[in-house]
């Protein structure tokens, strides 16, 4: 559905909650990525809003059966397996912010190598190494 006036965080409490969840997980606000860019159709903003609401409003807050840390490690595995490297970068940040260690994430890439292929795992691990370098002191439980 395309709207002339897409919902904003100011007018839609569900969207505002999704953006707050994204900020808590990623460590930054998503709004800078959610507008339209030159050449993009107007309904591109609708896609971004709906995708954000689904992922960060519907799925990430579900913690009854999977805690956020586990969900984040699953998401790292999925992004690495699919070879979607920019989304992987975000999933890695979420995993680290949720308490996963660099060592646990390295183990995820061993699992990806075993079941999705070494080349795919190696490509993903290169992104992980870049994310790890953003905070070189972070390692081990609770860091």
UniProtKB/TrEMBL annotation:
<dbReference type="InterPro" id="IPR003779">
    <property type="entry name" value="CMD-like"/>
</dbReference>
<dbReference type="InterPro" id="IPR052512">
    <property type="entry name" value="4CMD/NDH-1_regulator"/>
</dbReference>
<dbReference type="Pfam" id="PF02627">
    <property type="entry name" value="CMD"/>
</dbReference>
<dbReference type="InterPro" id="IPR029032">
    <property type="entry name" value="AhpD-like"/>
</dbReference>
<feature type="domain" description="Carboxymuconolactone decarboxylase-like">
    <location>
        <begin position="46"/>
        <end position="129"/>
    </location>
</feature>
<dbReference type="GO" id="GO:0051920">
    <property type="term" value="F:peroxiredoxin activity"/>
</dbReference>
<protein>
    <submittedName>
        <fullName>Decarboxylase</fullName>
    </submittedName>
</protein>
């Amino acid at each position: 559905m395309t709207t002339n006036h897409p919902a904003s965080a100011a007018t839609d409490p569900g969207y505002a909650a999704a953006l707050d969840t994204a900020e808590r997980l990623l460590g930054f606000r998503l709004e800078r990525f959610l507008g339209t860019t030159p050449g993009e159709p107007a309904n591109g903003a609708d896609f971004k809003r709906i995708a954000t609401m689904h992922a960060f409003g519907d799925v990430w807050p579900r913690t009854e059966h999977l805690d956020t840390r586990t969900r984040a490690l699953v998401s790292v595995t999925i992004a690495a397996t699919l070879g979607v490297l920019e989304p992987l970068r975000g999933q890695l940040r979420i995993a680290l912010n949720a308490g996963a260690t660099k060592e646990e994430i390295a183990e995820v890439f061993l699992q990806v190598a075993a079941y999705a292929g070494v080349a795919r795992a190696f490509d993903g691990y290169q992104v992980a190494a870049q994310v790890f370098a953003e905070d070189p002191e972070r390692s081990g439980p609770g860091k």
